[in-house]
Amino acid sequence: MVGSRLRDVLTAGLGVGELVGSGVAVGRAEHPVCGDQVELSLRLEGGVVREARWRAAGCPAAMACAALAARVLPGVAVGAAVAALRGAIAAHGGLAASELHAEALLARALAAAGCR
After folding, report:
1. Which domain does 56 fall in, by range?
2. pTM of the model
3. How many helices (H) and strands (E) does the chain have?
4. By the 8 A CB rule, do 45 and 74 touch?
């Protein structure tokens, strides 16, 4: 079950949507078993995430991690995005063992957007 701090990030609804235009990279990922889906739109400039938006369908953990990504990634170097998100998830109480797939799903979406 998503902890209260991650649930608060999700219910705030910040960063929902998509970005368009130059400098926008889009990364999508889907969990092959449960079907959770996430899409991240990142405005990249000078090797740094300047803006982030998300769309997701599936479990609350996947959606909460996507919402957290939109909150914490702006200002983070592209190469540090996955580590920054993992750190933010931990700082917000982490995920239960049954929810860890959500973190991996977001890492795959970030990689698909060019954040390695």
Report:
1. 4-112
2. 0.92
3. 4, 3
4. no
